[in-house]
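[job 0412] stage=complex_fold ligand=manganese (II) ion status=START
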Amino acid sequence: MTDFVFAPMATPTLPVTGRAALFPIARVFCIGRNYRWSSDEPAPQAMPAWFMKPATAVVPAAHHLPYPPGTAEFCHEVELVVAIGRGGRDIDPAQVEDRHIWGYAVGLDMTRRDMQQAAKRVGGPWEPAKAFDRGAPCSPITPVTTCGHPREGSIRLAVNGLERQQADLSDLLWPVPELVAMLSRSVMLMAGDLIFTGTPAGVGPLHPGDVVSASVAGLNEFSLTVTP
Ligand code: MN
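[job 0412] stage=complex_fold status=DONE, emitting structure tokens
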């Protein structure tokens, strides 16, 4: 048996809809702008950028969402999350759905927007804005065997009952198979990887006491209360 100088941390996990077994998380990839935020926006020519969050940033979306340190602009981004069940490199987009996707979830790509704007101004890295503790609350993962591959249907987020973000999954500029294939040409994907697929228009700040609710048709919805 391997000795460690201290006990290694437990693998981050998410619950699975309808099963006791947990989904072990490997890594978290986040796709940049992947919906039109205004109707006159030109169609993108290049695939969106991507960035990462640590697996430890993923927490089950339940009860509370603590306001993180170092920001005055803590923003919500509701996203469809793809859970990879079988990795690979140079994956053929036509094989993504049948061979590589294990399930889907609803996630929040929480963002310290003031830090992101500051980073953009100086061309600095986005990690302080994106890769913070508990910055990726996520619903339980629903297996493909239950939900299929959601390619249309509402994605929405409300704050204190007022709708802030609403779009349809068919509005995704780059569809899920293309996103998975793109990532697999850049890194070797692994079972347990999560991919946040981008957020529709309407992102905005949250404040302590706010109740944020998020849903994607056919997946688990959730509500969180922002705590100081
Ligand atoms: Mn995002």
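The chain is about 15% helix and 35% strand.
[job 0412] exit 0
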